[in-house]
Structure formats: structure tokens, C-alpha cells
Amino acid sequence: MTENNTSGNDAYRKALHKAQVELVKFHKHVIENDRKILVILEGRDAAGKDGTAKRITEHLSPRESRIVALGKPSDQDRKSWYFQRYVPHLPSSGEIVIFNRSWYNRAGVERVMGFCTNEEYEQFVHTVPIYEQLLVHCGVTIIKYYLDISRDEQERRLKRRREDPLRQWKISPVDEKALSHWKDYSQARNEMLLRTHSVFAPWTLVKADDKKSARLNIIRDLLSRCEYAGKGGHGEFPDPNQVFLFDELLLTKGVITS
Predict the structure, then answer these.
(1) Dihedral of CA 67/73/79/81: which sign?
(2) Which residue in 37, 43, 91, 136 has a CA-CA distance of 20 to 30 Å to 56?
(3) Is residue 141 part of a domain?
(4) Is 159 part of a structural domain of the chain?
(5) 201 neighbors 129 (Cβ within 8 angstroms)
(6) Residues 6+ apart with CB under 8 A from 93
(7) For residue 235, what pLDDT band results from cuts at 50, 70 and 90?
(8) Where is the Polyphosphate kinase-2-related domain positioned along the sequence (predicted)?
(9) Structural domain containing residue 237
(10) Backbone angles phi, psi at 212, to 5 degrees
(11) How many domains does the chain have?
């Protein structure tokens, strides 16, 4: 490892440690004030959702924090109200929950791979803003992140998964088709952002080709959006060129991968 790499890794670890200390302070505030925090992480396959969720919860109280990553719906799930299987996993008072993928599967994988009908999809995009507004009205703070990576970076990460015996569990038939459906996923992402970005639950975009920087900036952004006792000690704000609120104009300016 070069001296520059060593220096960069040391700086990252120090910055991450500082941000995670603030996360612990924030979590203590959440517990003491019965807050309900829901963080949604979305993005293409291999966008870095797993690692980001782990870094957020790494030092939080395991009794009041959870990562939720549901598998494919069962036959019973398909017969139920679409949001029904997610309801039991919503945060209770004093809890932080991270959805590593969420109900937005319907607007991404299900839409692209044909796992839902057009009618089911249209019903979803019409009702999800209402559903999220209801959750906010009932005291749930929703923070939604879309991790955006380039095609070359996705290809590199998927190749590493296939070659690394410790990452074999991450490979799925859907992953294997991700690159061949790149444009389809781009179109589905754009439509999802346009139709589900709201005042109550806006989308925040994250340029995620650099995993470490993305994780650190997501934590900083999360802290900047929430009030808690003793806030300000971390002293760092997210990079506005890497983490920013969605705007329709971004789709035509080349800021998001196409």
C-alpha cells in the first residue's frame, strides 16, 4: 500500500469515527425522546447499500436499531396489500430502522424484470406518497437515499462478487442481468424519482462510485437533517457535490448516470 493510500485510509477512519460518535449521540436523543427514524437506502445492485447500512448501525444500540432487508415476496405476500409486509418492520418509538431496499422494489427490480403488472406499478406510484405522508403524520421521520453508481463501477463490483468466495451469497439471478438492463433501470429510476419525490419524503441522491466517501457523506447528511442534544460536535457537513436533494433538472444535466 502506498503512503498516499495509507494517509487517505487513516483520514477516512478518523472522519468516520468522528461521525459515528455523533450518530451515537443522535441515537441517544432518539431513544430518550421516543423518535421514530426510518432510513431508506435504494440503488442499483452493488451500489453500496449493505456497507452503508452497516456503518450507520455499527455502534448504535442493537436493541433500538435494525437493518431490514426483506427477501422476495411469498405467495401470501403477493395476495396481500403491497405495503403490508413492510408494516411490521417500521420503527417503534425510540428506534432507528434502515431499509436496505424497501417498498421501492416495485419501482425498480419488479418494474424492470416484469415481476409486477403495469396496473400494480401505477397503483404503487400513486399511493406511495400518500402512504409516506401518513407515516410522517404519525411521527415517523423518513429519510430516503438513492445511491447512484456508474456502469463501469457496477460491472467492477459485480465481477468482484463472482470472484470472491466470501461474497458469493450476494450473487443472484437478478444481479446477473443488471448490466444487460442498465438503460431499463435508468429509466425506471428516473420515473421513480419524478413520481415519488415529495415534501414529506424527498429523495436525496448520492454519488456512490467511491464507497468510503459515500458512506461518510450519507452519515453526515443524516446528522445534518436531524436535531439532537449536543449537535454540532462533528463539525463536518456533507459534500454538496456528492449528496444533494433530487431535482428534475438533474436528469437533463448529466449529474445522474444515464
Answers:
(1) positive
(2) 136
(3) yes
(4) yes
(5) yes
(6) 34, 35, 36, 139
(7) low
(8) 9-229
(9) 3-253
(10) -65, -45
(11) 1
Question: Between the CA atoms of 42, 46, 47 and 50, what dihedral angle is there, to the nearest 10 degrees?
Answer: 70
Q: pTM of the entire structure?
A: 0.94
Q: Is residue 76 part of a domain?
A: yes
How would you classify residue 219: left for phi > 0, otherwise alpha for psi between -120 and 50, otherwise beta?
Answer: alpha
Q: Kindly report the backbone phi and psi dihedral angles of residue 142, in degrees, each rounded to the nearest multiple of 5, phi listed first.
A: -110, 125
The rounded distance, in Å, linking the Cα atoms of 40 and 146 is 8
Residues 149, 205: Cα–Cα separation, whole Å: 11
For the stretch 108-165, pLDDT in tens is: 999 999 999 999 999 999 999 999 999 999 999 999 999 999 999 999 999 998 888 8
Torsion-angle region of residue 48: left (phi > 0), alpha (psi -120 to 50) or beta? left
Which of 99, 182, 91, 181 lies closest to 146 in space, CA to CA? 99
